[in-house]
Amino acid sequence: MSVVTKQKRSKLSKPFRWWCWLYISLLIVALVASSVISSSVGDNIQQVKSTDKPKSVQEAIVDRINRMHETTTTTTSPAQQDKSLTLVRTQVPVIGILTQVLRDYKRFTDTHHLHIAASYVKWIESSGAQVVPILLNQNDQYYTQMFKQTNGLLLPGGDNLLDPKKDTPMMVAAKKLYKLALDANRRGDYYPIWGTCLGLELLSVLSSNMNVLERCSAIDEALPMEFVQRGKMFAPTSYSNIPQLNQDYSGVIVELLTKANLTYNYHMKCVTDDGLKRAGLSDFYRPLAYSSDKNNNKFITIFEAIEYPFYGVQFHPEKPPFEFVTKSKQHHIPHTRESIAVSRYFADFFVQQAQLNGHLIDRSLMDKHLIYATQPMYTALLHDMYEQRYLFPFGNGSTEEFVEHVPHDDEEVPEDVTNTMRDEHLNNNKKQHGSELHVHVSGQSDSQRDFYQVEKGPAA
Description:
alpha/beta
């Protein structure tokens, strides 16, 4: 009885066992196939990564900026909901460059008293940003709107007088913009300022409301520097996708600046440690590097604000790649490959800082105010120290008292020769474009009055 039962059970269990083995076999095959596919995809991805060509330093910087954008949070403002406005984010920042009074404007034109050296514009644009000129002698609303419609401010070099006790047009405009930037950063609105040469000196004056400058002699000199710390400007950076770079790029720049005469200096005043202490700025600005003039006077050549994105350099990073004048006494501007790399590093850094600003730029309005609306003048033909300048109308009144007479225009040119060359340039310009100079000044056109929503106010 038991034997029959066992035989029946054995016969009944054969199909069951067969189906079980089939199920298990199919399951094993499915798991193996899934593993093979997954491994194949992973190998393909790894193969794509491994076959990528090693990226250059510049490409790595671009990648770093892109990664920075990916991690930056975005917010929606009421302006974004208005589809009639064309808004652009900080991928292409707009940098405001403060104009300056042109003391010898009659060499170039009878009406345009303000200027920006074109090399500053090219320097900013070479790192992927756009430029809008910020004019002097405007009302408060103009500067507020310009602040809101820019992602950073550049204070260029020049020869304008820096005296916090005098309300010169440049000092008034700079004070307003500096306060707007200071208040904005305290609110969490990241707004960088960059000062070059006179711009560094101006930052120190604005931050202390006193004259902290000292005499030094660094005219037409390419100098090395001594670093004491790297700060934010030279913070170590690593690029894991660049096998040929065993050290960070900023470290390479620091080494270049230390070992070679790559920075072009043209100034008779400077900021020192004693000056910062005297002004109570030792806890506000952090010196990163020093240089020495021909009399062995040590001065601060790079500083940065400790708690704010404010940066200053005493030298001219814009000159090596863009100033080639031979008719002035600028005989020592370095144009080596290393000096160009250093120049680009500073421009890239500042534009990168501006990309962190969240101001939404209304392109439908700001396009009218970008530097493209102004034609540069080829001033090197007039024995100028700049290849090109952008010239802008100033308004009524003399500008002679607003500038400091430093040896800026180096060669004496007979007035009749200068006037003849100037007239030839203006006549040629008029033939090409139908007017003396293409400029757009706030308060001078209907479109700009619409932008600022106010008539031009009294002189600031």
